[in-house]
Amino acid sequence: MTEAAPTPTTEPLPVPRPVSSEDIAAFRRFNRYFTRRIGALDDHYLGQDRPLGEARLLFEIGDGVSLRELRGRLALDAGYLSRMAKSLETQGLIRLTVPPHDTRLRLIELTRAGHVEVEEQHRRADALAAGLLATLTAPQRAELTDALTTTRRLLRLAGITVALVDGATEDARACLDAYAADIDARFPEGFDKTDLVRPQEVTGDAGAFFVAYEEGRPVACGALRTLEPGVGEIRHVWVHPDARRLGLARRILAELEQAAVAHHFTVLRLDTHATLTEAQAMYRACGYAEIPSYVDHVYASHWFEKRLADAR
Q: What is the pLDDT along the chain (312 residues), one digit of tens a residue?
């Protein structure tokens, strides 16, 4: 039996703050320096006969892809993408085809010459990076690598949008299906999908459902439902494996807490499985205190609560 925990700490919800002019200036200054340093402004990127846009398109094609997928992946204007593809086709580096099963699609793949060109592009890009790093000491290179890893992680997080959606939408149910498959593999006893929240529990006055999107793809979710008057319950906070370690789970949690305030909840509760130690650590770090069991739930071994200081 779980021992009684101390009264949960009351912590203010995170309040978004305006971006400072100093932060904006630093970001733009780095962007100008980096694009110039790697030759992104040169019409003959890496000394080849094309600009960076076409070079990147060759790289992204890989083993073949549709123009539609490329447009979404790279966030490109359809006309601009079409012009680049036409240029590469004229150079004999790609071929464009229409699949018989869907005449609305245009597939793009590398020719033999295209594969050779991409290999040369890789060789030159590696040489450029090695040349830039060669003058640094080993500790300095390690410092730079760590900084670049952090930069990429934070920029990915900044580019992810979180939207409030109806719990019955296709994206909401797809996220819950992925969540169920994930924890079914992790729980020793498996997981029964009938335990998932129903759409009406997390929509409108009853609760809230958030989906996070990265480049149009759902990569995380979280649900809030009414447990009893003034008390909400957080369910199914999930992040796609490809988007973990970005800080996205905490962002979903913050959105759920804001929604709880909007629903006039003064207390939030949740439970979690014994195997989900990383989730337990996150909840504790975010001000949730462990409490005795508040519900008989087959998958629960730890129960948490947080009082909302900003609830109205």
A: 333 333 334 444 455 678 899 999 999 999 999 999 999 999 999 999 999 999 999 999 999 999 999 998 888 899 999 999 999 999 999 999 998 888 888 999 999 999 999 999 999 999 999 999 999 999 999 999 999 999 999 999 999 999 999 999 999 999 999 999 999 999 999 999 999 999 999 999 999 999 999 988 999 999 999 999 999 999 999 999 999 999 999 999 999 999 999 999 999 999 999 999 999 999 999 999 999 999 889 999 999 999 997 544
Instruction: Measure the CA–CA gap between 63 and 45, rounded to whole angstroms.
Output: 22
What pTM did the predictor assign?
Answer: 0.81
**Residues in a beta bridge with 55:** none
Quick check: helix, strand or coil at residue 16?
Answer: coil
User: CA-CA distances (angstroms) from residue 182 to 81, 172, 280, 306?
Assistant: 36, 15, 17, 26
